[in-house]
# Entry
Amino acid sequence: MTTQNPGCLTSLLSILRIRSRSRQNQDVFPYRVRDDFLSPAEISFYHVLKGMTGEKLTICPQVSLAALLFVSGGDNYRGDTNRISQKRVDFLLCDPKTMKPVLAIELDDASHQRSDRGERDALMDQAFAAARLPLAHVPAQAAYNTRELSALFRAAMQNTGPVAAQADVPPEGSASPPLCPKCGVPMVRRVAKQGGTPGRPFWGCRNYPRCREIVPDIG
# Structure
């Protein structure tokens, strides 16, 4: 005759099953949180940026280029996509209301002196220039002069030129679509379904929703 409480035995078995399932999940999904998500130099620079921007801008660290940029067209879509798929930018400053990117920042430490990093930096510069998103390179330091940083950021934002001419709206009766002012690809004729002008036709970028440029249809 046993004197053990059946309820206690049931609880013990339940705990053992939970632990067993937990070990199984750990075997299937061996993921852990990285302690080096940001390096000490990046953490230090993040606090400098936070002190400079306050609530005026949102700071996003370690942003994937594949999440930030897209290939607008061309004959080498897969190759152009793969060129940026494994790359990240150290910091991205965004408008806090719309989260629209304003400025990208690369924190350059001693590793950027290597030839392979030089090639990578050149690709980054060309990609951001094509996307018309300013990119500033900041040498990693023990301390930073915020006035010099502000001047560097302003210069980067002022030097970003247009990637394509303004959209060429075709003359009335023309069948040729205009080119997207952002992507440089032929636009698609669409009809507004909501907003202040439902039923009115317009030209929209074929890369929507990644590109939301529109041109009035005056035909």
